[in-house]
Amino acid sequence: MTPDLVLTDAAGAEDRDAILRELIAFNDATVGPSGARPLAVLLRDPETAGTVGGLWGRTSFDWLYVELLVVPERLRGAGFGRALLDRAEREARARGCAGIWLDTFDFQARGFYEKLGFEVFGSISGHPRGRERFFLRKTF
């Protein structure tokens, strides 16, 4: 069989799942299971119970990857960002993780993360153009 190459911006969940299955099978055969588990710490509105912000990530291969972290502007400066990361770190440690990694742009929260003990381990200049993206880690 010779597969077709199909470029699309409308791929579905089944397409992602097919790719992920192959990658997981390869990784498992090479280094063993990743132990991947989702991890979320949510900020909920007490009146509506709706999520207004929080942290979204996953533990995998003994590290917590923080994919998303946002505190609504009206709540910033009240310690919620620190609380989200502290709670996620406690859970990551409970899951046996060695550390946390994440990325942020120069116009976002690099200084905030560094105050919490994260260190830059890489960056991409010009992403987006005229700016910089940083990759940070905190080891336990």
TrEMBL record:
Instruction: Write out the entry's keywords from A to Z.
Output: Acyltransferase, Transferase
Q: Which Pfam families match?
A: Acetyltransf_1
Drop me one GO molecular function for this one: acyltransferase activity
The record's listing under InterPro entries reads: Acyl_CoA_acyltransferase (IPR016181), Bact_Acetyltransf (IPR050832), GNAT_dom (IPR000182)
Highest taxon listed in the record's lineage: Bacteria
| PROSITE patterns hit by this protein | GNAT
Catalytic activity, EC: 2.3.1.-
PANTHER family reported for this sequence: AMINOALKYLPHOSPHONATE N-ACETYLTRANSFERASE-RELATED-RELATED
Please report the name of this protein according to its UniProt entry: GNAT family N-acetyltransferase
Report the source organism.
Methylopila henanensis
Lineage at the top is: Bacteria, Pseudomonadati, Pseudomonadota, Alphaproteobacteria, Hyphomicrobiales
